[in-house]
Each structure stands twice: as C-alpha cells, then as structure tokens.
Amino acid sequence: MAVGKNSASTKSKGKVKKIAAKAARHRGRATARTAASGRGKLAGAVNNLWARLSGRGSTAVSTSDLTSVRRTYLSGLLVMLLALIVTFLFNPRLADQLQANIVSEMKGTVPEQERFLEALPEGVLLYREQQDPNIVKLQDIFSQVLSHVKLREVQYQSPEGQDLINSLNIQEVPTLVYEQRAFDKAPFSAIIKELFTPAGQYYLLNSALVNTSGQLQLGGHPNTDGAPTLGSETATAVMILYSDYSCPACRAQERNIMPELVRLVDEGALRLVFLDIPQDETGHVFSQTTTCLYQHRPEQYLSVRQQLFYRPELSEQYAFGVLRDFDLEFDADCREEDVRNLLKARAEMSKNLKLPVALIGKTGGAEMMRFSGEQEVSTYLKAIREVR
C-alpha cells in the first residue's frame, strides 16, 4: 500500500509540472502576441498614413486620420511597455544582466580616460630663473588652455634646455614648448593658435606677443650696421634702442631716460646704439635726416636727435632747416638709396615690436634682456647694473 501511494503521488506531481509548464508557455506566447499586436497596429497605422501622404492612398488625409494614428501610436507604445514590464517580472535575470552591463561600462570609462591623459605628451616651460615674473604670467594664461597636459619646468642653461634651444632655434626665454600631438588634440581657438609657431614636431610660443617685456633674448646682438652709436666699444654694457620720431611713447621715454643714459656713456660704462624704426613716410624722412647727419657730422647727432624728440610738433621743413644749419641739403646729401633700404629692412624686421624697445646685454655677449614699451629709467639702470 505504501508503494501504491508513492506511485500515485509521483504521477500527480508529474501532471502538476506539465500543467505549470504549459501555463508558462501560454504566458510567453500571450506576451509575444501582445507585443506583436502592438507593433502590428502601430506599423499598420503608420503605413496607411504614409500611403495617403505620398498620394498612393485612395483618400486624402483628414483630421480624424491623424487623430487615429496618434491614438494607435500611443496604444502601441503602451502595449510594448507592458510587454517589457511583464518580461522583466518573469525573467529577472535579464534585468540583472542589463544592470550589470551598465555598471561595467561605467567602471571601464574612467580608467580609459586616465590612460589617455597619461599618454599625452607633456609641455615644457623653458625658464631663465624661478623668480622671473613672466613665468607666472605664462602659467596663468596656459594652465587653462592645456590643463590636461603635464607641464615640466626646465632651466634654459641645463643640458636638456640647451638641447631644446639648439634643436628648435629658440630665441627667447621664458617660453612654452608643446609637442605637436598635444597641441593638435587641444580645442584651441584661432587666437590661441596664432600665438604659436610650428617647429618640426613641436609648437613654440611667440613670446613677444605674450611677454612684451623682461624677456631674455638669445642668439647674440641684432645687426646694427650703419646705426648711430655713442660710447666706447670697450664698455661693459651695450643698450640698443629701437624708436620712431613720430611714436608718442618713444618721444615721452626719450625725454625721461636720455640724461641718465648719456651720463653712463660719458663714464665709459655704456655703449648706446640707436636703431630707428620708421612707421610711416614721415618717420622715414626724420630717420634719414638724422642718419645722414650722423654720416657727415657725427658729433652733432645727439643734439639734433634731442631737438627732434623734444620738439612738440615736427615737420619736414623743420628737419630740412636743421640740416641747412650744418651746410647739408636733404635732396643732395641725404637721399642715399642704401640708407632708405636699410631703414625699410629694419621696419620689416621689427614690425611685431611694441615701440619703444630696448635690448640690454654684455658687449659681445650672446644674451640680451628685451624691454618693450615705455619704461622707467630705473628699469634700464637695474638691467645695466646686472650686466656690469
């Protein structure tokens, strides 16, 4: 009797499992039919509307047609949404897998970004001395431009600094150097890109456009052939002054600094070189006048220069009158073609400079400090003392 009961019980359990499996299959089929029905209604309504809009339908599109499509569309979305909910309720593993995939993607994103940033080439800040205020300016400006690139500071006299200077022909420090790959990946504006000059696989900052003053200029002295000069060639320091007679800042600075500079010239401590950079045709006339005077009456050059810079208003007739005081005629003695060409070449060479500009360095040395714009005489005197 016990065996019979167990056999009957086993048969009953088997029937229950079959009924449960059949019910599950029916639920799955019902869900699929429901979703398919929703998709079918939606597709049919859209196809019918498209046929009418394109002229292939038998009747024109009416307001009731559009209303019907909207209702069908909403009901189709609702049916599909219900089908998804039922699917997740009866198959929780699917929801868990989807959540796991999302979490996995989120965890994988951060390391990829970190690896990308670490692989970017670094930039180099080439500096003269740590106390240089121009370093702070460069860091402030470009920390926002290439914030994802590591910036190393390299002293320009170190072996690495000298390699960079020689291989890239760097003319001024401090400056910024970026590898081309880092530069090209950054979303620079056109204004920022104009500050840099390509040099092989690198981009160099045009320091003259950012640090207008206090830069260390490398590569020796500029060409000063034919330029008026005061002082002994054996003086420890040399100062090259770029200016223009019609430049307001040049005129103001000339009056403020010249007495002290002439005193150093007389003491034998400074050699002063004047490079005229005429900005217009009138400037050419005045520069030719003083250059001509220097060639014929060099001892009178400084006096006439001061007259032209100190005079409130300038005119060509006044310049011609000054020459006649020394028995010189502008047309006959001062229109040498080589002088005019020399002045034009200087103007082209210095077109990006903010006048007045002064270069101060050791006589015969390879480095000079560049100062742009009107400066106090104390600034120049400090630089001259450092050179001496």
Task: Tell me the number of strands.
Answer: 12
CATH topology of the largest domain: Glutaredoxin
Radius of gyration in whole Å, from Cα? 42 Å
Largest beta-sheet characterization? 7 strands, mixed
Low-confidence stretches: 1-13, 30-43, 49-61, 98-120
| Topology order in helix (H) and strand (E) letters | HHHEHEHEEHHEEEEEHEHHHHHEEH
What this model shows, in words?
This protein is an alpha+beta fold and 388 residues long. It folds into 3 domains: 2-114; 120-211, Glutaredoxin (3-Layer(aba) Sandwich); 216-387, Glutaredoxin (3-Layer(aba) Sandwich). It has helices at residues 2-53, 63-90, 92-119, 133-142, 159-168, 180-185, 190-193, 248-266, 281-296, 301-310, 316-324, 330-333, 337-349, 377-387, and strands at residues 123-127, 151-155, 172-173, 175-179, 196-199, 202-205, 215-217, 229-230, 237-243, 270-276, 357-362, 368-372. A 7-stranded mixed sheet has the order 3-7-12-11-9-10-8, with helices on both faces. It has a 5-stranded mixed sheet with strand order 2-1-4-6-5. Strand 11 (357-362) and strand 12 (368-372) form a beta hairpin. Helix 9 packs antiparallel against helix 10 (301-310). The N and C termini lie far apart (124 Å). The model is unreliable at 1-13, 30-43, 49-61 and 98-120 (pLDDT under 50).
Short overview:
The chain is an alpha+beta fold and 388 residues long. 57% of the residues lie in helices and 14% in strands. The protein has helices at 2-53, 63-90, 92-119, 133-142, 159-168, 180-185, 190-193, 248-266, 281-296, 301-310, 316-324, 330-333, 337-349, 377-387, and strands at residues 123-127, 151-155, 172-173, 175-179, 196-199, 202-205, 215-217, 229-230, 237-243, 270-276, 357-362, 368-372.
